[in-house]
């Protein structure tokens, strides 16, 4: 199919090689071009649903990491207050 689009093969030659009708090759070419056009249009309009899901997951994980870091700092400060300064504290 790509050979037809690149002009390396005619539709008739591609049909003979694939042992299908010229109409089938023509239909495949049309479907391929339509899908490509739709994909490019979708790309211009914004992020895919999967990209949106991944970005939301990244935001959730970033927030969870921040909260865990804060909790660890609070725990460390409270432990230092009860036990006195440690040799490893800065």
Tell me what the structure shows:
This protein is mostly helical and 90 residues long. The chain has a domain at 2-45. It is 79% helix and 0% strand. The chain is built from four helices and no strands. It has helices spanning 2-5, 11-18, 22-45, 49-83. Helix 2 crosses helix 3 (22-45). The longest helix is centred in the last third of the chain and has 35 residues, at 49-83. The chain is rod-shaped and about 85 Å long. It holds the Pfam family HTH_28. It comes from Nocardia mangyaensis.
Which short descriptors sum up this protein?
90 residues, 4 helices, rod-shaped, WH-like_DNA-bd_sf, sequence-specific DNA binding
Shape: rod-shaped
Q: How far is it from the N-terminal to the C-terminal residue, by CA?
A: 66 Å
Largest sheet entry: none
In terms of DSSP E residues, the strand content is under 5%
Low-confidence stretches: none
Rounded average pLDDT: 86
Category by helix and strand content: mainly alpha
Please provide the ordered H/E string of secondary-structure elements.
HHHH
Residues in helices, as a percent range? over 70%
Report the total helices: 4
Number of E-type strands: 0
Cα-based radius of gyration, to the nearest Å: 30 Å
Q: Oligomer, anyone?
A: single chain
């Amino acid at each position: 199919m790509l050979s037809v689009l690149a002009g390396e093969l005619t539709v008739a030659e591609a049909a003979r090689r694939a042992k299908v009708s010229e109409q089938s090759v023509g239909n495949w070419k049309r479907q391929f071009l339509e899908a490509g056009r739709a994909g490019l249009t979708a790309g211009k309009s914004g992020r895919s649903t999967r990209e949106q899901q991944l970005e939301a997951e990244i935001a959730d994980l970033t927030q969870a990491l921040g909260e865990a870091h804060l909790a660890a700092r609070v725990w460390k400060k409270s432990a230092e207050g009860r036990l006195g300064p440690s040799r490893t504290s800065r």
